[in-house]
Amino acid sequence: MEKEYKIVVADIDRTLRDKNDEFGAINRKAFQELHKRSVKLGLASGRPLWQKLMEHAEEWQLGFQFDFIIGLNGGEVYDNETKETIKLNPLQPDTIKEIITKMEPTQCNPFIYREGYMLARWDDELLRASAKRNNNESRVVKDVSEFWEEPVGKIMYRTHSAEEMDAVVVPLAKTIENDVFFSFKTRVDLLEFQDRRNSKGNAVKEYCARHNIDMADVMAFGDAENDIEMMKMAGYSVCLCNGMQENKEIADAVTEYPAGEDGFGRWLFDHYL
Predict the structure, then answer these.
(1) Mean pLDDT of 246-256
(2) pLDDT for the residue numbered 212
């Protein structure tokens, strides 16, 4: 590959690491080599910034902080140069109420993030598993109206199976979408709602605009539906081989190795670095 990219941005879960795997040594070396070449490096996650996204650089022993970190699927952007966090287009209370009310027939537990904790309709094994997996506090509303007391970045619905998601949750979600919000799957058993203006791609574009960088100079890595806009908008995109078929179809390349085997780092060393 002849072109040199100014930015490399990557999703985290199932892109830089698999669900049960640690961040690998080859991925670490790839980031360190990119940093040595003065490439700006970014993370783009569906999780909020407070959920330890700022700690990954130290956790992964990179020796430097990422230049920017995107949280909430593009709802917030941390710029390490200016130390500023930009908040973008949260769902407003009336929209939150509309979504949660109209999704009630699914009998699925809605989740939202508040600063420092996760809020759900009721306590169940899916809530407890999510809280344990992400090492964060979870709370249950006393009244459903607590969900729309203030704006939120996104609303999530988890199911017990992919079959329940595709047969029950997705069909209803698609019927209630409008010009303000839309829904998408980030896992086979996780559906999310957010403002139509927000995406990881638009968040990268916001960062690029602030630093006079063209989106054509961005290389993006992803695996799921919430990565698609970022991958489409980037100058070059790579999907992990464990990613969704939709992502593979729009990507410029697909890795030979999955996230759990350092697919990100191996692809960079084999095809770019």
Answers:
(1) 98
(2) 98
Give the mean pLDDT of 196-219.
Answer: 97
| Phi, psi (deg, nearest 5) at residue 176 | -100, -5
* Strand-pair partners of 111: 120, 156
Q: 200 phi and psi, to 5 degrees?
A: -60, -35
CA distance 187 to 253: 21
State phi, psi for 80 to the nearest 5 degrees: -70, -25
Is residue 20 predicted with pLDDT exceeding 80? no
Count of CB atoms situated within 10 Å of the CB of 235? 16
Count the residues in the chain: 273
pTM: 0.88
HSE value, Cβ hemisphere, 13 Å, CA-based, for 149: 11
Write out the chain in H/E/C secondary structure. CCCCCCEEEECCECCCECCCCCCCHHHHHHHHHHHHCCCEEEEECCCCCCCCHHHHHHHCCCCCCCCEEEEHHHCEEEECCCCEEEECCCECHHHHHHHHHHCHHHCCCEEEEECCEEEECCCCHHHHHHHHHHCCEEEECCCHHHHHCCCECCEEEECCCHHHHHHHHHHHHHHHCCCCEEEEEEECCEEEEEECCCCHHHHHHHHHHHCCCCHHHEEEEECCHHHHHHHHHCCEEEECCCCCHHHHHHCCEECCCCHHHCHHHHHHHHHCC
Max CA distance (Å), the chain: 58
